[in-house]
Amino acid sequence: MSNLIDLQFQIEKLQKQANEIKAKEFANTVQDILAKMQAFGITVKDLQSAKPARGGNGGRGKFAAGKAAKAVKSAKGPKKSAQPVAAKYRGPNGETWSGRGLTPKWLAALVAQGQSKDAFLIA
């Protein structure tokens, strides 16, 4: 089994190899990016004004897909505004519950004591 010094030497060697590969591929990558920018009509200004992506971008870097991402967002439609729901149940101390979500503790305790949930319905 390798010791720490051997592992550190291997890490250093691999890091140098990675840097050499990166340097060799840099020019080709820049040319590829420029070709794609030209094909899609993307300008440097488009890239600078792009909002940073919120993760889940598949490792494509720090910016969202630009125009395509905006088109997807607008296709979703308008957001529904959160409207409060009218109370459906009222407790003996004035507590209220809409009937949605988990049963509140005050109502669960009263039902556990044998009272009917329907007894607390608001007319």
From TrEMBL:
Gene3D superfamilies: Histone-like protein H-NS, C-terminal domain. Residues 79-122 form the DNA-binding protein H-NS-like C-terminal domain. Keywords: Cytoplasm, DNA-binding. GO terms for cellular component: cytosol; nucleoid; protein-DNA complex. GO terms for molecular function: bent DNA binding; DNA-binding transcription repressor activity; minor groove of adenine-thymine-rich DNA binding; transcription cis-regulatory region binding. The keyword Lipid metabolism does not apply. Belongs to the histone-like protein H-NS family. This is Nucleoid-structuring protein H-NS. It comes from Rhodoferax saidenbachensis. The lineage of its organism: Bacteria, Pseudomonadati, Pseudomonadota, Betaproteobacteria, Burkholderiales.
